[in-house]
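Students often ask why we bother encoding 3D structure as a string. The short answer is that it lets us treat folding as translation between two languages. Here is a chain of 301 residues written in the first language.
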Amino acid sequence: MKNNFLLLTVSCLILSLYSCKEKGSSSVILDEEIGKLTDTAYTADVEATTPRKLLAEEFTGVSCPPCAHGHEIMASIKEQLNGNIVIIGYHISNHLQTRLVEKNGKTLSKFDFRTEDATNVGLDIFAGVNEIPQAGFDRTEIKSGTKIAPKADWSNAAIQRSKIPTPLNIHITSSFDEATRECTAVVKLAYTGDVNLNQNLNFAVLEDDIIDAQKTLTSEGIDENYRHKHVLRDLVTSTSGDPLPDKAYPLTEGRVYERTFSFQVPDEWNAANCKIVAFVNNNSSSDRTIVQAEEVTMTGK
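And here it is in the second language, the structure alphabet:
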């Protein structure tokens, strides 16, 4: 598990019955060992189809003045789509404009939002990010040969993608124990139509409202009290998502798959401002587009 996460992926019942196994110096329950007990699949009445909720993957940086305007554009798109969009802010490590904010030789940034996960998404999913801000929507082609584009193309790309119906509803319930700092989230995939491709489940944690420095296009040039949103804290699953298990198939209308994630939240994260994100993508050599996304607050409030 990356970023010091203790990913247990167990239900409360399993937690009460099983103890952690040692792996090196940390206690961890291996998903491979208890995977049969961490998830479930069944058939139920077909739900009414919910609107498509896009996934916007925004590559941004604190030392990138135009990126602040990009955040405003994303907020406007969310309003246009009546909230039917999940935005992830990726701060990658391999770009000059994601480095910490400095002024007169003094570092103004209190936090470093750059993560290995974000960098890997840029490299593995989008074949490298050469300039920022750029964003992709559901990992679909925006222009010939590219799945990410500059901010001038965002609104049209998002609106066009939002018109395509989805065969899947995603529901997330999340709770946070302040005493133990443990979060437990249940992700439920409910199919409202038939899907003939294999699919992957993705699970991520974001944090909103982090106050820190951001370079801007204003006359001041730097806002030391900028409110950062949608900051990727951890991509719990692999870069391209975890394949749904055999038990989840066939992905026909009425099919339901549920998986429980449980993990310790690092002290430096403000759980009250964190969000749980889940999204599902197709998993074939010719189609890796995202079919649905969802987010909820970590605390369930």
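Translate back mentally: The helical segments are 12-17, 31-38, 65-80, 116-124, 154-162. Keep this in mind for the problem set.
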